[in-house]
Each structure stands twice: as structure tokens, then as C-alpha cells.
């Protein structure tokens, strides 16, 4: 009946309805535990119910539920006005409404508009994925989008075949996306099917309120570098977070990529070009391309590009051209373990001195000998203060090898993420009487911490100046965020941190978790301290 969600320890309850009479619904909904904030009502054939039954179902949703998933219910069979009446019964505690996979594209624009108008104004995240919206004309989509509540800040239009529309139609539709939307997800729409000149015009119609734009999985590799440049040049300058992952951009030449990257708006500070098969290009070509990444990008995500297939010299050539504006470099899932220690040392030495956060997660570094890894780590730039080594099978190394490896980590590093390798690594380092006094913050996997809680006390022996431990879930988020701060204090005590008290951040996140629906939190993020923005944004998505 339920499934445990790892993200922030939030529990999802899957409810399969039996009969839709008043008495039966009371029984079914009475089974929902008070801890559940996510209610999954997918696959209940709600589109086949009578209007009275559908209203009855939504009216029974408990007032503490924040997320409702209604996928695969064939709601497209219902009349728009009837859907509006039913949606109006959804409790105002709901902030995320998932209407994905409901064949809503079968409804006319007017009917969709009627339905959307009934969505509670408490909803800030609206998911309309996989609804075949391409079946509606641009004018109809415009009519429908115009009725999306102004409370919605996160609009998900994934996998709707929007690439089937012509430029004029889609431009008309996008022009009516509410100006409240700050995150727009257009992944998996095969936008490359649209003529480049038309796609460029379409992008000018994206609301200037949008700061996060997801264009992943759109086969953009089918566009020439010159045409990509025209398209990227028209991305709104309000966009700060641009996701271009999974577009097979590695099929473009270095010159083509350079032309395209050069036209990415200078407003973009977080650029995601993960999973683009960049290893298909030579080191020289990638260096040419990276040299044209705007010098305003702070976070560069290069994960899952098989860069381990490049030689050490090529990697060095590539890294040397990363803009000096980059402070966070993500190299996860790149099979860097294919290179030997000398090659990695050559490559790491060319990482820009501006980088303070280096992510080497899931690179099979454990395949390299301890001596070689020590050689490589010794060349990590001394400006790096946060290093992610999670899930690299380092726990399989001997104590002697681990001592060599960790002795060469730059003294500048104060934060170390070891993921699920932590317990084996720490146990062996403690046996070697290894002391890393510069480390004050460690990040470990929460599930493994639960499994090996008796070994947590060893953290303080290896890291005598440790004052912070973060327990991460499988999504890379703080597993204790939003929980009672006393829970954090309990875990810190197990880690050997003396006089552990709940952090100010955990107390703030706990308050947010308990008050997600409060208007000052949902509508006025500018009132919150800037340093809390990332953690709180992550929590509100849960």
C-alpha cells in the first residue's frame, strides 16, 4: 500500500481505491497514515467515474497532503468543467499536482482552460507530462496555458510531442505561459524537428520570469552549430540555470560546439551538458568548445560524458579551457578510473584554480592503485575546499593504500563526501592511525549510516576537527532536512561530535517543512536568507 521515498525521508502512500461509494471511500482514505505527505492515486481509472464520484474522491483527500499523483487515470475522458469542479475539491495543502499521462491532449483548448481554472491556487508545481498536447493547436494551448493558476512557479511539459507543432503555433502557446513560472521543463519534446529560425522565435516567447530552463532530450544534435547559436541566442536572459543534457552534442564538431556555446546567454550561471557523448570529440575540439562557454558560468556539469576515454594530455587540454568563472566542476560518471595515476595527475593539474568544489563521484577510481591515486590527488588544485569521492569502490583498497591516497589530498579541502564507501574507508584509516585534521565536514550515505551506525564514532578519530556531518539520500539531498532538529543532534552525537546541537539550517528547514503551504514561503522566496535558498528550494520540490 505504500512505498518509502528516500528523498528527505518523505513517505509516499499508494492508494488503490476499491469502490467509490461514500462508505467505501471513507474506509480507503482512512488507511492513509498521518506521516504520508505524498499521495499516489495513479491507475485508479478515475476518468471512467461519474462526476459525483470524482468529486467525492478528491473531497476525501486529507488536508495534510502536499503532493498528489494522478497519473494514468484517463482524465482526458472527463469534460473540462467537470474536471474543474473536481479539482476545486483538492485541499489547499496541495502544492504539487501531477496530471501526467492522462490523455489531456484529447480535450479542446477551451475544455483544458476550464479544467486548469479549477486547480487550487495553493499549487506551485504543475506536472502535465506525456499528455499528447501536440494534438491541440497553438491557439488552443494558449487558451489553456492562460488559465494555469498564477500560483504555479514550476511547469512541467515533458514528453508532449511539442516538436510536432510549427513555430508560429508554439510561439503563440508559450506567450501565454503564466509570468509566475520560474522553472520550465521542456524535456523529451523533440524540439529539433522545428525549423531553427522558428525555434529561435519560440524561445523569445518564453516568459522572462523563467530562471530554470530544461531542454534535455530534445535531439539538439540534429541542428548545425550555426543554427544552435541562433537558437541559444534567443533564450531569455532571465535564465540562470540551463539544462542541455542528453542531446548527443558530441556529434557536433568542436567548431560547431564553440559557435553554439558562445551564444548561451551570459545570465546562465549553471550549465548542464551531461550525457552528451562528448568523448566523440578530440581533446583539441573540446578545448575549443569549452573556451567559448560564457565566462559567467559558476557551475559546470560534465557528468556521464565518458571523458575517461580521453588521454591524460587531452583531459589537461580540455580542463585548461574551462572558464575561470567556474567554481563548481562536476565530473561524475566519466570512467576516469580508466586512466592511470600519471595521466590523472596531468589532467587534475589543469583544473582551473577558480574551482572550489570538485565532484569525482562514480568514476571507478578504486581500479587505480593507491600509489597512482595518491599521485593524482596530489595535483588537485589547492583552491579546492570541497571534494566528492562517493561511490568509487575506495573501501576495497587496503589500509596502507588508503593512507597513501588520503595523505595526498590537499590541505585546502575541508569538506569530504565519501558516499557509501565511508564505513570501510574510515575503519581502515583509523586502523592506520590516520588523522586528517583539516576536514571539518563529511558527507556520507544515510542508508549505510543506518546499517553501520556503530562505526560512526570512528569519524571523529580520523577527523578530529569534525563539526558537521551531512547524511545524503540516494538523490544527493540531505536526508534529515525537514525532520525534527533533535534527530540531527542524535546522529551528530553518534558521530562523536561533542556538544552537538541542531544547526540553524536544520531548524530553518524543519520550519519550512512544517509550513510549506504558508504564502510567505511559497510566494515570497526573496524574503528568505540567500544562503538557505538551495536547500529550501530542494525541500519544497519534495
TrEMBL record:
Keyword Repeat among UniProt keywords: yes
A Gene Ontology cellular-component term: perinuclear region of cytoplasm
Gene Ontology molecular function, alphabetical: GTPase activator activity; small GTPase binding
UniProt GO BP: nucleocytoplasmic transport
Entries under Pfam families matching the protein: LRR_6
UniProt KW keywords: GTPase activation, Leucine-rich repeat, Repeat
InterPro entries: Leu-rich_rpt, LRR_dom_sf, RanGap
Keyword presence, Repeat: yes
PANTHER family: RAN GTPASE-ACTIVATING PROTEIN 1
Protein name: Dot/Icm T4SS effector LegL5
Organism the protein comes from: Legionella pneumophila
Organism lineage string: Bacteria, Pseudomonadati, Pseudomonadota, Gammaproteobacteria, Legionellales
